[in-house]
Write a structure and sequence with these properties.
heterodimer, A: alpha/beta, Rossmann fold, 23% strand, globular, B: alpha+beta, 4-stranded antiparallel sheet, two-stranded antiparallel ribbon, 20% helix
């Protein structure tokens, strides 16, 4: 193992054959690897998300993070792009699924792919990770504090998203959920409702909620960062992906 | 973070961004995670021209007390000149 990796901006075909930007990180060691599609948080395709993408590659996974705001704000700074997309109503669900599907196609086409792919998403991306896993055949999915899988958005909110807990029956893979007990979106009640839906549907899932943590406890560059929750959360992620994305070659 | 509390309104006016002055089409007001302000939440306002793309944006992130003071001052100023 050399610990070498390569990270770069790539173009890929997303929803409706639209070309979008993505950040691809790959281990350079010999072998075949599982892949992770990293779905960025609402603040966008920013430095923190790229850092997380490289972290997966450093741990032996192919990792790709699509810029979900490529269409509305190509080349814009992440905060400008996020503001524009917020004002325009957010990322439509069908477009999200199409863009993730494009990422899945790309990573599976790489010679170093073992064929297994997971999604992980943070904040709005947590909901989108669940959405993708209910819409596409995947091997694992992680939902990090995704809001509005359960629950109705505040009235008048311009974001055109709604609850998708009814899709639990279509979940194609095991789900790891990591939540902050102090979060409001999703609240502990929302998390409990999602857990009940997964249980009723007979799905494989593993949930952890952290006391003293709220939303975005993984974000090291924000005051919401909670080191203890993040450290344990990362450990859960490595164990989960080790179980479900491990190389088919052994 | 991510309270999702967002209000969008149409506005008429102008703002000066990185590329100079531009006409405004809308503003979004939300209490959510800031990009720069070192706080978990802030009152954020984006002044936008959605037809002109991402660079046509002027953004502010205010702590709640500052936002209230600003709102009160704006209303008082307009009342003083008979435009309230």
């Amino acid at each position: 193992m050399t610990d070498s990796l390569r990270a770069e901006t790539v173009r890929l075909t997303g929803h409706d054959d639209h070309e979008i930007e993505a950040y691809l990180a790959q281990p350079l060691d010999e072998g075949r690897f599982g892949a992770v599609v990293v779905i960025h948080h609402m603040p966008g395709y920013d430095e923190g998300m790229k850092e997380i993408t490289r972290k997966f590659a450093a741990h032996g996974y192919l990792a790709i993070c699509p810029n979900l705001y490529s269409r509305e704000a190509p080349g814009a700074s992440p905060d400008d792009a996020s503001a524009i997309v917020r004002a325009l109503g957010g990322v439509p669900d069908d477009r999200l699924v199409g863009d993730v599907h494009g990422c899945v196609r790309l990573v599976r086409s790489l010679a170093s792919s073992n064929g297994r792919v997971a999604t992980i998403g943070y904040c709005s991306g947590g909901r989108q990770s669940f959405l993708a896993a209910c819409s596409l055949p995947l091997d694992a999915a992680v939902d990090c504090y995704g809001a509005f899988v359960v629950g109705t958005p505040p009235e008048g909110m311009p974001l055109k998203i709604g609850p998708i807990v009814h899709m639990a029956k279509d979940l194609s893979c095991p789900l790891l959920g990591l939540f902050g007990a102090d979060d409001r979106f999703p609240s502990p009640q929302h998390v409990a409702e999602l857990e009940e839906a997964l249980k009723q549907a007979g799905k494989t899932y593993e949930f952890h909620s952290y006391e003293g943590a709220g939303h975005a406890f993984f974000s090291t560059d924000r005051p919401s960062y909670r080191p203890e929750a993040a450290k344990d959360g990362w450990q859960r992620i490595w164990e989960f992906f080790g179980r479900y994305l491990a190389s088919r070659d052994g | 973070m991510c309270t999702y509390q967002t209000e969008k309104l149409q506005v008429s006016g102008s703002a000066k961004g990185p590329k100079g002055w531009f006409s405004l089409s809308s503003a979004t007001v939300y209490f959510d995670h800031p990009a720069h302000q070192p706080a978990e939440h802030s009152l954020n306002i984006d002044f936008l021209n959605l037809d002109a793309g991402a660079p046509s944006r002027v953004a502010v992130e205010l702590d709640p007390a500052s936002a209230r003071e600003l709102a009160r001052t704006i209303l008082e100023t307009l009342e003083t000149v008979g435009q309230g």
